[in-house]
Amino acid sequence: MLEIRQLKKMYGRTAAVDGLDMNVREGALYGFVGPNGAGKTTTIKILTGLLLPDGGSVVIGGEDAVAAPRKVVEKIGYVPDFFGVYDNLKVSEYMELFAACYGLYGLNARRRIMDLLGQAGLEEKEDYYVDGLSRGMKQRLCLARALIHNPPILIMDEPTAGLDPGTRYEFKEILKDLREQEKTVVISSHILSELSEICTDIGIVEQGKMVLEGTMEEILEQINVQSPLLISVYRNREKALDILRSHPYVETITIRQNDIMAGFTGDGEDEALLLQQLLDAGVMICGFMRERGNLESVFMQITSRDEGRVLIREN
Ligand code: ADP
């Protein structure tokens, strides 16, 4: 439904998107996750035709988004991460404005607007001023507006940011409705836990690249095989790090307070040998286990690079 290959976007010398691949299946509820600055908003702006890429291809519903942006825009509903200011505009007027942008007027527009306001739980608010609505209501209005032309794909940038738990629950209910209407939905967030329980598919982006992508089942399966070793060092941490850095089965090292998380490709015997090697070198260890695979820990490993704390072995 949505296919991105080797997407690139530079801002001066900064590569905001740096060879990103992305594949969203029809009907998926796709969580596009990554730390702040990973390139999510830039990617979304390219998808929605607001920015031109410097390289790569974007195909949406079979149409080339770069060569034929107008055709693609019709297929997409976009909910940005800001709402904007609409002084003295009532809810119904706001919706009429966007309906007119898509050539919908008169009775057709009225029917469509009432239908969408009903879905968003805002039918009672049509005579309210937009600027007076609560944060959650504004977001639902923004969603209603994005659906005015009945697009098959909906793209939402950080929709859960700043929502209180009650509003977040309402939001999840709305997502369920959208799935029932067979929409394909892409939601971006820098907080994985907000998406992992609702999404069918996840793509984790870091420094402008896709680092992990698939259905929830595929990703969890992959993670279980790849879950890291969690080593709690009581004394001599530097020595432990030296050993881990030069170990052939250690692929990544993340430091979390007193614990070291090591991406380890060896089997049980290799683990036992590593433990022995650490003890023989005088490292005092108070915990040594393979952490059970979960998406949060993988995401932490990826995103803690932000703080310069992941040391990747150089081959
Ligand atoms: P995210 O949405 O994941 O937080 P962005 O796409 O906003 O990431 O940003 C990706 C990178 O591009 C960041 O390093 C950011 O500072 C940079 N960036 C984004 N927009 C601009 C801009 N208009 N001018 C210069 N740099 C930008």
Description:
This protein is an alpha/beta fold. 36% of the residues lie in helices and 29% in strands. It has helices at residues 40-47, 69-73, 91-101, 106-119, 135-146, 165-180, 193-196, 216-226, 237-245, 268-280, 295-303, and strands at 2-11, 14-24, 29-33, 55-60, 63-64, 76-79, 153-156, 184-189, 201-206, 209-215, 229-235, 250-256, 259-264, 284-290, 310-312. The protein has a 6-stranded mixed β-sheet with strand order 6-7-8-3-9-10, with helices on both faces. It is elongated, with a radius of gyration of 23 Å. Adenosine-5'-diphosphate binds at residues 11, 14, 16, 34, 36-42. Adenosine-5'-diphosphate is lined by residues 11, 14, 16, 34, 36-42.
How many strand units? 15
Number of helices: 11
Ligand inventory: adenosine-5'-diphosphate
Structural class: alpha/beta
Instruction: Tell me which oligomeric state these chains represent.
Output: single chain
Give the low-pLDDT segments: 306-315
Order of helices and strands: EEEHEEHEHHHEHEHEEHEHEEHEHE
In angstroms, what separates the terminal alpha carbons? 37 Å
Main beta sheet strand tally, sense and closure: 6 strands, mixed
Please tell me the overall pLDDT.
Answer: 87
Percent helix:
25-40%
- Principal-axes geometry comes out as elongated
How big a fraction of the residues is strand? 25-35%
